[in-house]
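2,3-diaminopropionate biosynthesis protein SbnB (Streptomyces siderophoricus), 333 aa
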Amino acid sequence: MFDFDVVAGETVREILSDRRAEVLGIVSQAYRSHEAGESINPDSYFLRFPEKPDSRIIALPAYLGADVQLAGIKWIASFPKNTQVGKPRASAVLLLNDYETGYPIACLEAANISAARTAASAAVAATTLRPGGFEGTRIAIVGGGVIARNICDYLHAAGATPDAYLVHDLHEESGRALVDHLRTTQQRPASFTADLGTALEAETVVFATTALEPYVTTPFKPGQLVLNISLRDLAPEVVLAADNVFDDVDHCMKANTSPHLAEQLTGSRDFVTGTLAGVLNGDVTVSGERPVIFSPFGLGVLDLAVGAYVLQRAREAGSALAVPNFFGETSRW
């Protein structure tokens, strides 16, 4: 009853790298459970620093019922300047709590979990919102970091295999590293472009940047699918000219995301088409007459779902690290 485990990042990475198909299903089901009201997902809390305006640490508390029955919180730091010295932008831990007693049961390294659930959500959206498939199309990746690499891996696992990839990044070395990764792992044509406009012409465009404010001002064309993962690249006019699908509408309408700016500009949410779970359930359809933008704020329930799966696999494999006597008192009397 009072066991407490630690799951290290190497173990998390090993478990997730071999089970992308399972993670895709877990994320898809978590979206459906959230849509069905089987979760509690409060607003995220942002810890910001006046002397580091680009940096933040975010707390994502959540509870997921259904077949998970866990509460927990992800504590994830985003320090973009890390990338200038070759370190990942993000680092994170995930604390899981037993729903019956409230006791914490495990702490997991969560940068890998966060990257996996983000990438899986992008891949689920891609295959759901482009049901005709990706043959004869190009996928452009704007931003060549860890999240972008994971998105490409999960797109491949989901069967979203285009004829070619384009990669654009202000830091050419990062962009070319992603090109090499794509050529090696997917054996697909991939090329780097220093011209953003060229990338934005692809049939599918994925934004995975650290942008703090919009810089894309030209609307996309009908038939294009935009995975707005980094949330702040698009001017509000671009959002308003598209069908817009969200992971959770209320969550996305804050923190000056591109959809939030569109709401502030118009004073309404008339541009909202629906949620991804709504599309998965057949309750929401996109028109096909406009581009489609998927904007995920990133839900804590996804971290819980993937984290619970990782903990189970680690315990089964004996790779979870038990911490004896973690709790100082285990009896009330």
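The radius of gyration is 20 Å. The longest strand covers residues 52-64. ok done for today
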